[in-house]
Specification:
With about 210 residues, this protein is an alpha/beta fold. It has two domains: about 5-20 and about 90-209, 3-Layer(aba) Sandwich (Rossmann fold); about 20-85, Putative phosphatase, domain 2 (DNA polymerase, domain 1), CATH 1.10.150.240. It contains twelve helices and five strands. Strands 3-2-1-4-5 form a five-stranded parallel β-sheet. Helix 10 links the parallel strand 4 and strand 5 (about 190-195). Helix 1 packs antiparallel against helix 5 (about 75-85). The chain starts with 7 loop residues before the first strand and ends with a helix.
């Protein structure tokens, strides 16, 4: 990858900037007695309630109440804790890498997330870096629960392109989910699939040297 290949960068959050592990949330809900949670929520496909939460079409208290229908003995605090279990940490140097990228390219964030996770990963960010909001690292952050659109739907990508008058062919999108990569490519966006052994530091090393 060369510096001349693109003019703009769009980054995903989980699996690209923030360490996550979906199995931790799946197991946490199983421990609470939600035996079929894994069938309802996975990295590749979400359904119903989870989709509504990530597109801001259901409030936090409604989400918790719906979950409690499956696990009535669980408290709101236990449900939030289980839901946040997948959120880990920001690897050492990762935020500095994002800042370095943003210093050389207009850089945007596009994340499928929700209001509960947003509050939690910002707490982690502040505890690690004293930065209080992930949004401050970017020219603009597009969070699914705020824009009411999710990847891989083309409308999510199109919103960024249109609002910022971007040329898709000169835009690099980095994400760890193959379906999101394919969604971006359908609009002509350059897309890099971040694998488990990849890192932003390695991807941008030659450009930030």
């Amino acid at each position: 990858m060369k510096k001349t290949d693109f003019d703009v960068v769009i980054l995903d959050l989980g699996g690209v900037i923030l360490n996550i592990d979906y199995n931790l949330t799946i197991n946490a809900f199983k421990d609470l007695g939600f035996d079929n949670f894994e069938a309802q929520y996975s990295k590749l496909e979400q359904s119903g309630l989870f989709d509504k939460l990530e597109t801001g079409r259901v409030e936090e208290d409604e989400f918790i109440a719906e979950i409690q229908k499956s696990i009535p003995i669980a408290s709101a605090e236990q449900i939030i804790s289980a839901w946040n279990a997948l959120l880990l940490d920001f690897p050492e140097g990762r935020i500095e890498t994002v800042q370095a990228i943003a210093s050389q390219f207009p850089t945007y964030l596009l994340s499928n997330t929700n209001s509960i996770h947003y509050k939690e990963f910002n707490k982690t960010l502040q505890s690690q870096t004293d930065i209080s909001d992930i949004k401050s690292l970017f020219k603009k952050a597009y969070l699914s629960h705020e824009i009411h659109l999710r990847k891989p739907n083309k409308e999510a990508f199109q919103l960024i392109i249109d609002e910022n008058e971007l040329d898709p062919e000169r835009t690099l999108f980095v994400d760890d989910s193959p379906q999101h990569i394919e969604g971006a490519k359908k609009l002509g966006i350059q897309a890099y699939h971040m694998k488990d052994n990849d890192s932003l530091e390695a991807l941008f090393a030659s450009l930030l040297a």
